[in-house]
Amino acid sequence: MAIAFKTMKQLPGRAARVRSKASSTDAGPSTHRSLERGLAVLELLAGTAGPVALTDAARRLGLHRSTAHHLMQTLVGLGWLRQEEETRSYALTARLHQLTERRWSAEQIGDLAQPYLERLTRETGEGSSVAVWTGGKVTIAAKREADGPVRVVQDVGAVRPIYCTAVGKALAAWLPRAEVVAALAREPMRPLTPKTITTPEAFESELRRIRNAGYALDDEEQFKGLRCIAMPVFCYTGEVVASMCVLGPRQRMTHQKLLAVRTPLAVLARELSEQLGFVRIPPSHRGENA
Prior knowledge:
The protein is an alpha+beta fold and 290 residues long. Helices cover 44% and strands 16% of the residues. It has two domains: 2-100, Orthogonal Bundle (Arc Repressor Mutant, subunit A), CATH 1.10.10.10; 106-280, 2-Layer Sandwich (Beta-Lactamase). It contains eleven helices and eight strands. The strands form two sheets. A six-stranded antiparallel sheet has the order 5-4-3-8-7-6. The chain has a two-stranded antiparallel ribbon with strand order 1-2.
């Protein structure tokens, strides 16, 4: 399985071989045929950006729709695929990444995060985004702007300061300390507004608050008139890989609204973490491996 996943771009002919064998009267043992078809499904999804609809997968693999449905539902049951609730399309779970110890790229996390941002903005009425920690920088990987004339415009690929943004602080609170120190050495803590944190001591105190609360705030620290709340996103290793946020103008993002959006934000950040293979340790067991 690891070889198939790592080399899926070098194996463009597997789907064609499945089409050929599916129509052949001498297809070999059914077990071998099912295995080959199952691997072809995994390779197809591994090489596709975003979820794939059943009819599209069947067409591209040259299989009858019922055969593709059986294969993909079996892989769902075995934990290799997941099925989207709204679209009923299929996508890989984190198991291939766990098996091969691969990490998600910023683009892959952005693709995975987009449906969650659609839901988050729909439920809160405000803009949302996911930032990833890559190359020692906080980078926007996906966004969903709010509807209406007044909105906060974000650019995918834009880099955010780690010390004065909610997405940056939500990452920093759970990153290894050495990485945070290195990031601050590269990025001086310049005062961008009167509320910007500008000393390492104040920043450390803020990170302790964030770890205790479970969320980070940007209360006009980067831009005047902008408020944001963010929560961390973890992967199967237990490491933080991203942060998810809700943001908007101060007039709408009142303190009451910041409190209200915490629940949908927590739910969706947790769901994205689970999609990345993260398993939350119950509080009663956390001390056992400390």
